[in-house]
Fold SIGLEC family-like protein 1.
Amino acid sequence: MGPPHPQLEPARLLNSFCSVEKILQCSCSFHGIPTPSVHWWMDGVPVDVNSGHGHFQVTSTTLGPWDNSTLSLARDPEMGTVLLCEGKNQHGIHGLSILLMSRRGPLAPQIFLEALLRGVVYAAMAITLLFLCLLPFIVKLLRTKQAKKCAQMREQKNSVAETDQGSHLKSREPRKSRTKLPSEEQL
């Protein structure tokens, strides 16, 4: 009796990741029996390992039922670029689509400046509207304070005037003088 035959398995994606340092690297790990082959597609076009045009490089490692493949992209991808890693054997196909976004698109500085300018304009409009809404309350508060000050000043003037009038009246009152008549002394 010969060695047992391994059970046949379709290709399955078991691990994937993308990282960006100086270059973009995406990896996919497929498992299957027989060992799956991995292919990369960029925007629906197969990536030819031999014709990378200096922009990308594909490295693959096969170990038993595993095929690990890494795509390295030397330049920033265009906005919305779709990568597809696909593992395939005669029992099945499994793949993963990756949507790439550019870190430094040509419009990024312009979009940032436009957004910053809009933010400044909207903030200025909001502050102006807030001030205009609060203006009647501020005016009312200032008028109330001014009216209170005027009332206090009137009260002080009135009390000073009353005090002055009272002291003048007392000093102007005629004094009663008493002279004694000689007849009164005798009584």
In short: Residues 42 and 83 are 5 Å apart (CA to CA). The longest helix spans residues 108-172. Residues 9-100 form a domain with the Immunoglobulin-like fold (CATH 2.60.40.10). The chain has two domains: 9-100, 106-155.
